[in-house]
Amino acid sequence: MILKYAPQYAVITPDIPFTPERQEFEAFAMQELALVLFPLTSPTIVTLPRLIFHDRTNHILAMEDVGLDATNSEKKQETSTMSLKDLCRSSSITSNDINVADRVGTELGKFLFGLHQCGRGIGLAESDKLRETFVRNTAARQLDADTTFGGIMQSLDEFQVAYSANEKRILERLIQETSFEMMNNFETIIMGDFWYGNILLKFQTGAEPRDLTQIGVIDWEFTTCGPLFVDLAHFASEIWLQDRFHSDNGLASIANRRAAVSLFASYRACGGYIDCKKIALYIGGHVCCFLRFSNWTDDMEQRKTVAREAIDLMLAADSGNWTSVNDSLIRELFEL
């Protein structure tokens, strides 16, 4: 069992307030959303933690530990777990783990498409109740918009990135437009914090090569109604950062890229729409801001270079000049 306390600030930094009421939405996701979602995505090895209890007064959740090493009483198989993030950073990764990352991406793409279809109410009467609840999670939308777009210009100035007056005008417009859309476009139900650190992989212990038995998606406190590109872009943003700063990490680097590319391909294959422009805008904003929030490097010159790459991606997306985008991961994700 996992006990989770919700403080009055965001995990990434105590300087950013985040209401403990966010737990209401995480509890609702584990209980009500899961009941509606999994019949739509079955058969699947993707799961959510089971809610055990919710103490609203003290802001504490008790939930199933989907990452717990345990024994399957039916199959008599011991299991081991790791996050997708750890897999993509592991120094002991094997060539088979690239296939694991590929399968994880494929399964997550199907799952994410099912979530977005469910959240749009396509052929699903229960969707209205879910949407009525999650649309109230304005704090999650605001925090995501603030930490993706609100700090772009501050990051550029902090890292001493040069930009022209025209680029500043364009960026300020993009920040305003995209932040507004994230706050006011209730296209579907989004997980809101869909990144490789919130993906727990369960394997059969002792199996060689690794035998993936379950994928757990955790931390649903950001679940809200918003544009579907957010989940895709949030996942891709952290994969991009990992790829940019640790591209020389051998097989782990390949697995990292494969997880994202397979997710995008799977989402497309299900019939999902990849909005390259908006995803690129989000990636650029996320990278700019999280260079400050996360310790990817202490090298200020490298931060400056990467921040410039991030706004170049945003400017290219806005103009539609995709030929200027040379980043191989972006080109593969967008099938450019």
Automatic annotation (TrEMBL):
UniProt cross-references to Gene3D superfamilies, sorted A to Z: 3.90.1200.10, Phosphorylase Kinase, domain 1 (3.30.200.20)
Domain Aminoglycoside phosphotransferase span(s) in chain numbering: 96-246
One matching Pfam family: APH
Top-rank taxon: Eukaryota
Name the UniProt record assigns to this protein: Aminoglycoside phosphotransferase domain-containing protein
Lineage: Eukaryota, Fungi, Dikarya, Ascomycota, Pezizomycotina
